[in-house]
Write a structure and sequence with these properties.
By secondary structure, this protein is mainly alpha-helical. The chain has one domain: Four Helix Bundle (Hemerythrin (Met), subunit A). The chain is 71% helix and 0% strand. It has 7 helices and no strands. Helix 2 runs parallel beside helix 4 and helix 6 packs antiparallel against helix 7. The longest helix has 27 residues.
Length: 199
Amino acid sequence: MQVLARPVLGVPPDVLTGVGVLCAAAAVPTASAGGWWLWLALVLLVATGVFDGLDGAVALLTGKARPAGAVLDAVADRITELCFTAVLFVLGAPSTWCAGLAISFLLHEYLRVRAQAAGMRGAGAITVAERPTRLIVAAVAVTGSALAPAGAPWSGWPWAPTCAVVWAVLSVMGLVHLSIGTARALPARRADQSGGDRG
């Protein structure tokens, strides 16, 4: 990723983060258009992943990494992941499944952040339901839909609903894994707490 970052070292990392969000947002109406537009939606999803890596690489290479940038990047990640679920929705996944997927990855990230705030060092566990998986599942749904347009042998295959089910299964596995990992990584006591802040 650092090799790809060198041509854009003059671009502020926050701008790259914003471009990634715009790519993810644009993928939703593009995917809903169907047909050959699905290939453009796939390019936009891939670009989202690329820009997500570029902003961090540029920040490190230019010495511009800062806490506010990390917060912005985390918020941008959640927005783009909501766009991934929206892509599945416009491709035919049930709305209830998409809502459940959104809740699952938000809970996944909230659990990790709260554990880190409580003293956990590191990620707790790297699960099968991390951000790259969420992007890949959305990209597979788009690719499958693009490869099987109306009249194609596999045109009746429910790509989006199938990918939603796969994502849901991986999310459950990921939450269980992360829960176990955070429970093991959390310190037994916090030196700065006597009664405990559970808010």
